Amino acid sequence: MGSxxxxxxxxxxxxxxxxxxxxxxxDYKVSFAFKNGVFTENTSLVLxxxxxxxxxxxxxxxxxxxxxxxDHQALVLExxx
Length: 81
Prior knowledge:
Blueprint: E1 3-7, E2 19-22, E3 26-35, E4 38-47, H1 57-71
Antiparallel strand pairs: 1-4, 2-3, 3-4
């Protein structure tokens, strides 16, 4: 988790949606930006407990699934002339 930057010449046609999820197990957020030719992705995953009870496992599964899903989103670039 953290921040990734990528210098791009072509302009992205669109950015993935920013996501935020708060559960009893923890919080996850991801945001995307494109400015001055630099694409930036910021992610944060904060787990509130080291051990998760069986009852809280569905919340853990939900937050980790979102983190994995957002990590595999495509970035579509405009074809340069």
